[in-house]
Amino acid sequence: MKVPVSPYLQIDGIVYFRRMLDKARLFAVGELREDLCSNLGKAMDAWTCEFLGVSYSGLSARLRVEGTSDEDLLEWCFSEGKKPADQEIKVWNAYMTKIGWRDYLSEKLSIRKAESGLADRDEIQTMFDYIDADEGRAPGDAFAIN
Predict the structure, then answer these.
(1) For residue 59, is pLDDT > 60?
(2) DSSP class of 65
(3) What is the mean pLDDT of residues 5-10?
(4) d(CA 73, CA 78)
(5) What contacts 141, CB < 8 A, 6 or more positions away?
(6) Which of 9, 53, 65, 99 is deepest in the core (most CB within 10 A)?
(7) CA–CA separation, 142 vs 8, rounded Å?
């Protein structure tokens, strides 16, 4: 079983989108790590689709068209939904990369860290950090990914 790319990895300056596509592709071929399957189309996936003004089901259907690249899918979102302005993308990225840090998901982050044996890892302060650590990537290294 495989894990998708880091949520920090950007496409056209937007965090998380590439991870959402990678999760869906891995799931479609039966290779997505089992514990990640139940959240497909929910939480961060749903927020990302809402940000772009498209439905997860519509994007998933489009994703199944053979040979469709991540860039093609983002352009489809822009044409079917909306293309956020640069400032909206900056705000989106700031929000997404800080989820779990002193907010409504802080408690959930603590629970997830404990369940994964990462409770003593103080450098894991956000959900993105947790995702990377849980999937074997160093949280601090993610900021170098573009």
Answers:
(1) yes
(2) S
(3) 95
(4) 9
(5) 132
(6) 99
(7) 6
Residue 37 within a domain: yes
Residue 100: other Cβ atoms inside 10 A = 23
Q: Is residue 143 part of a domain?
A: no
Range of the domain at 104: 99-137
Helix axes 17-28, 56-63, angle to 10 degrees: 60
Give CB contacts under 8 A, 24+ apart, made by 84-87: 84/14, 84/51, 84/52, 86/13
CA distance 97 to 93: 6
Residue 106 dihedral angles phi and psi, to the nearest 5°: -60, -45
Helix residue spans in the chain (DSSP H) = 17-28, 34-37, 44-52, 56-63, 70-80, 86-98, 106-115, 127-134
| pLDDT of amino acid 139 | 72
Number of domains in the chain: 2
Contacts of the segment 27-36: beta carbons below 8 A, 24+ positions apart? 28/63, 28/64, 31/1, 31/2, 32/1, 32/2, 32/4, 33/1, 33/2, 33/3, 34/1, 36/3, 36/4
Number of residues written out for the chain: 146
